[in-house]
Fold Heme A synthase.
Amino acid sequence: MAQTPRKLFEEVGDDKPKADTPRAGAIDAKRRGARGAIRIWLMLIFALVALMIVIGGLTRLTDSGLSITEWQPISGALPPMNEADWVTLFDKYKATPEYQLQNSGMSMTDFQFIFWWEWGHRLLGRVIGAVWAIGFLGFLVTRNIPTGWTKRLLLLGVLGGLQGAIGWWMVHSGLDSTGQEIGRTDVASYRLATHLGLAFVIFGFTAWYIFLLGRTESDLMQSRRNANKKLFSMSTGVLHFAFLQILIGALVAGIDAGRAFPTWPMMGDGFFPPDPFQLSPVWRNFFEDAGLVQFMHRMAGYLLFIFGIVVYLRARKSSNKYVRRAFTAMIVMMLAQVVLGIVTALQSAHLHIAITHQIGAIVLWVLILRARYLSAYPKSQSIREA
């Protein structure tokens, strides 16, 4: 049967199947809801880790970290249930160098005070582990983890497990009899620095993932084309420098060096602390001499602030207002942290001021990460906003 020829301007009918047309945002079409849910889950972990760092700082400042002398990941979650349990735990604490050299004669009430701080610190660690495990397995089983994110989320769990092991490695240094031989009543400062440093690494990865999940993959790919590579590189340097300063701050806390020289800008009667290399071998002075450790923390703080100003001035030239604002927030918080550090030294690391200084480090760490993120993935803006 012959077909009737089509007219020149005749519209094509719907009798033939149409080819699928590309849709905007196709790269984000799969598992779009999972990104939001995972981001909320990570925000919870973010808040818990931040609280963990603060409680860890208070545990150190109250000298509570050695009140529990055993590492019992499962059974240790239960607190003492009766008087006999308290007596048993107290007797174990009495065998530690800290009790014998520093707290001899401590009452049961005083022991219970430091015990609850350490128990709460460890319990929060267990809660964080449970929140991660439940969330990760839930998203994994339901296949709601976006492509490329399984290893990233698994990394947080691996680092969390490692953190628990390092925490016990740190506590064990304060229970070891070799500490008593050199007159040490606290944990080894370099182990404390390792423990705190890893906490900030976990905190940093969590924050970075939250930033990435806050935008679609297509938006990130497009914004990456406008990245300020030089500013990203410089902010990465600030991030590493700030991490080094955090580690030195942990050394200060580990040996109570913050109480050693309540003067500023001088350290006592001079710029340098007196007799900074009395300990043998020499390397011990960089970890255990209060004057030298505090001096390193001060000098690193000054240099970090100067470097921060240089990066901030570079960021002011950016045409992106979000980048400029991010680096402005960073330098303002950096200045506040310098002031807090000076006040902490002048007040001999008073409990409330010292913990405020540590909270300041957490806030600054996040702001540096955010500035670095926006230099790599700047948000779009209109020509007028630029």
About this structure: Confidence is low (pLDDT under 50) at residues 8-31. Residues 319 and 386 are 5 Å apart (CA to CA). The two ends are 66 Å apart (CA to CA).
